[in-house]
Request: fold
Amino acid sequence: QKEVEQDPGPLSVPEGAIVSLNCTYSNSAFQYFMWYRQYSRKGPELLMYTYSSGNKEDGRFTAQVDKSSKYISLFIRDSQPSDSATYLCAMSVGANAGKSTFGDGTTLTVKP
Amino acid sequence: GAVVSQHPSWVICKSGTSVKIECRSLDFQATTMFWYRQFPKQSLMLMATSNEGSKATYEQGVEKDKFLINHASLTLSTLTVTSAHPEDSSFYICSARESGGNKQYFGPGTRLTVT
Reply:
């Protein structure tokens, strides 16, 4: 079983929809949680970075962490065609604590 | 801020030759850099963790003599694919972690094609 599980999709939504992307994990030591966006043939771009449980909002993006359920989410409001990409969750045990563990990514298409 | 560059962005080489890929953190110091490869429509696969001034740590199944990593400064790490073969054709991506921090910033990737 993988340490981080992420539904690969693909997920297709109409423009303007609210998108929910999720990851589950098994390692209770994870404390730092990240979401990356990767466009085709590009490197991943850091979107959200959160520590421990709670919510964090940045524009149309909201990251949610529920450590008790070992479940993290990324919500995209008012989705746009330019949001079409692969979204990767990642998590790590602590600062300077070595590599992050990545999910396999969810491919999202927002149709105009 | 937090920009990571890679060079070259695209390279074609003949089987049996070696290729060097550079990864630079442009506006921050990175004690640790990571090298990944990614096949089309597949996830990132961590190849090795590179720490400035010390030997890289390779993931299981990655040949350290084939994929040579050097992290000579706090802003530069290089990956050399030695004696490349067509099966080494892939998208290679580096990331850099800020010294004292936990955020990883990725480079734009290098597409390697071995003919």
